[in-house]
Structures are given as C-alpha cells and as structure tokens.
Write a structure and sequence with these properties.
Length: 337
Amino acid sequence: MDYLKDQFHDYLNEEGEVNIAGYLFYRDSILKNLEVEGYNEAFDEWLQQRQIENLTRADEILSRYQENGPRFKKLQEIFRRGGITPFIGAGMSIPSGYPSWTGFLYQVLEDTHFPKADFDTLIQEGAYEEAAQVLSDDLPHGCFLERVENAFGLNHKLSGPVQRLPYLFKNAVITTNFDGVLAGCYLNADAAFDEVLLGAEAHELPRALGENKRILVKLHGKANSSSKRVLTKTEYNKHYESEASLEAVIEAISNKTLLFIGCSLTVDRTLKYLSSIVQRKGIENVPRHYALLRLNKTDDRLSRRDELAKANIFPIWYTEDHDECIEALLEKLAEDI
C-alpha cells in the first residue's frame, strides 16, 4: 500500500516543519531517514487507524438505505469468489486531474459556434458521439483531436481511490476512459496488464481471461491513438458496423458480474445495451450487476432504481464526498480477506 505514503507524510507534517538551528526539516524525512523501524511502525499504525475509519464510514453508508446492506453483502460474496469485473468511469480519474467527458465537451463548446441549446439537447439524450462530432466539425481540421490529447493524453500524478483497484481486482478491468490512469496504477502496484483490448476488440475478453491474463479493456480506445478510438459519430460508425455489433461487445464484457465505479449511469450506451441483452435473454439468464453510485439531491431514487433494474444493475447508494465514500466501500469490500 505504498501509494498511501504521500497521505501518511501529509499526516506527519500537519504540525509544520521542525526548526533546528535555523534549518527547516520535514517531519516525515526526519523519521524516515533517522528511524526506519519507527517510520514503518508509525505507517502501519496509521494504516490500521485509517482502515477503522473507512470501515466505520462504510457501515454508515450501508445503513442509510434499506437495500444497501443486504445488497453489499451479496456483492462481497461474489467478490470473494473472484466473480467481479470492475467497470471504471471518469469519476475515478478526476482526482488525478482529468476532466469528465461531459465537462471536457462543454469546455470545447466555448471555442465553437455551435448553439449551446442544441448541444444541451444532445448531452441530455446521451448522444455523446454526436456531440463530439458537431464540435469536431465546427473546429479547424485536427483541432478537436489536439484538445482531446491535451486533456486526456498527458500523464498526471495518480491520486484517489483508483489506486486501490490493483490490490482488489487481479484479472480484467473495463473502462470507457481515454486516459492512462488505470494502466499507471497497475504498473505502480507491480501488476501491469498483460494485454490491452481497444474498442471492438473487447469481444475477445472471454478468450483472454481463459488464458489467465490480466486484461485492460478500453472500450473507447486511447486519447493519443486514432486506432480503434471511439470519440465522434464518424469513429463510432467506423468501428461498429451496426447496433448489433456494439451489443455483442457489451455482451462479451458482461458475462461476469460487473461493478460500476465512478460511473454516472444516467443516459448511457452501456446501460442501453445491457437492458437490450436482459430483454433478449431474460433476467434469470444474465449476471446481476452492481454499482457504487452517488445519489444527488435532485435525483429521484426510485426512478433511478427502476431504470437501472432494466439493465439488471443494482446500486449501493452514497450521498457524501465521492472519493471518501468510494475509498470506504472498497475497504469494506475487502474486509476480512
């Protein structure tokens, strides 16, 4: 859990620097360099206290809504059997300095002539590829892709609960994110992915898992590579010949229980095709999926529940700070393991 040492150092330095004969020293440096054993013991004690605080926070979250507790226990059972595939959204990359996809599109909109009202309609309908296309068409050739690479293709310092994922999920990870956060986290944890599947290649996931490989599936490709990237409507049509071909990809990645983390799950293509698969195959013949999902003050919880149930997705609701709640629930997920 070395990724937590920056936070531990912040804790040690809360009381400020130490002044010795006019020279200033950081407390973490003094302890680490002069008393290695004491440093390691202090770090272990801090980890234990942090774990207790996270578990307490998780228990509070799970007691807030009647369905949360029993649902989470079932999720834990599946996790302990190795039956969970995490599906990671932009919310897990934001702490590392990357924008959400919607936020990015609105940033670019400010530099175009496209009417905001028409753009709002596209976003509300979940037509993200179409929204990206109108921005790309309005800007000079190549400018939209340059903005994408600048926003998502640069490497930032990794931060947030996403760094916990390599210690919990050892096989496949699925994401719609363009950035390199997940690859970086797994590399830092000495658990680099054996293979990366881009876009429509995701249908190969069952084969790769059968070979016991650690797989990263990037459904929308990478920001700095046009190969198999799905940004605009043109690129979407290029990589997916039909609606049925995209549904086949979603079906391939959802043959095990998915756990959505950092995803908004509002108007979403993945949600649409999971619902279609449920209708076609029957709710008893597809895996049950889960989501760690923030409930905003303006949300109608029961309406959201009903919409997610069509895709066989069952949420564990939280209402407080995203990063703190995700950190706590991931701690709880691994409790006693």
